[in-house]
Design goal:
39% of the residues lie in helices and 21% in strands. By secondary structure, the chain is an alpha/beta fold. α8 links the parallel β6 and β7.
């Protein structure tokens, strides 16, 4: 296995200490402002991975274990969660802030993302709290609070250049995913539709809820339409509702994710930006 080490600010000494645990030298592959090192041909074991991952996390260094031959061009699709993955915020929490209800809604969001609360129930409860809110609040969130996660544009530029299609699949809302699809030139987007009547949110969503199973089915549908296998997809997410689609992917990436997601993903990016997948698949 190859071990890729990345950090925003770790010194070479910290990198070498982790490389020494792996029993190999760390080669500097930093590029374009991304600080990365590769340890080739590590004699992999689960116990070694546990040791190195813990040391890396303590030093704020991301550690990625991959077969040596795996490259970005081996994949055909990048599927991304939106809230707290492609963008820095949870849109529903920020919408709720317009009602003075952010703490209540955020608590439900957190429980759902940790896998402690079934997603359909969590979304239904959260959206119900928005009943009566003027729909202009959505535009305010978009204009005032929505920001891309670090490295998002660099990642997308490289992914598109490598010929991959892009899918945004979210348990959030079409108001935001449609905007992101257009603004970033993404190929596909799928999310929930908020019901709006007379300019007010009704506290309901229209149609089926985009939950964990629907996210997985969406990835499968897009792959089928592209005539590729899910194993040719990279899937990125942060919450428990992303796990089902991550499990069918050829490479799953946990981005600043909840512990339950980090534990099950192929790769966890805890400290660097979304463009951290580029040194991994170089």
């Amino acid at each position: 296995m190859n071990l890729i080490l990345q950090s925003l600010n770790a010194d070479r000494g910290a990198i070498d200490r982790i490389a020494n645990l792996a029993g190999v030298a760390a080669v500097d592959i930093s590029n374009g402002g991304r600080h990365a090192w590769r340890c080739d041909g590590v004699d992999y074991s689960e116990s070694l991975k546990t040791l190195i991952d813990a040391a890396g996390y303590g030093a704020r260094i991301d550690c990625a274990w991959l077969p040596a031959a795996l490259k970005l061009g081996d994949f055909k699709l990048l599927a991304m969660d939106m809230d707290s993955t492609l963008i820095t915020i949870e849109c529903i929490d920020e919408i709720a802030d317009m009602q003075g209800l952010k703490p209540q809604v955020s608590a439900i969001t957190e429980a759902a993302m940790r896998g402690e609360l079934e997603f359909n129930e969590s979304l239904t409860r959260r959206v119900a709290l928005l009943q009566g809110l003027d729909a202009t609040a959505l535009q305010r969130v978009l204009d005032e609070r929505l920001q891309l996660s670090p490295g998002a544009e660099t990642m997308l530029t490289a992914v598109k250049a490598a010929g991959l299609k892009t899918l945004l699949v979210s348990g959030g809302f079409t108001f935001f995913t449609d905007h992101m699809k257009a603004a970033l030139g993404l190929d596909y987007a799928h999310s929930n539709v908020l019901e709006i009547v007379d300019g007010k949110l009704t506290g309901k969503v229209l149609g089926g809820i985009v939950n964990a199973e629907e996210k997985k089915l969406t990835v499968e549908r897009v792959c089928a339409g592209l005539n590729i296998a899910p194993s040719q997809a990279i899937v990125m997410g942060d919450g428990a509702n992303d796990l089902a689609m991550m499990k069918i992917a050829g490479l799953s990436v946990a981005f600043r994710a909840k512990p339950v997601v980090r534990a099950q993903a192929s790769v966890a990016l805890n400290f660097v930006g979304l463009d951290g997948i580029l040194p991994i698949l170089a």
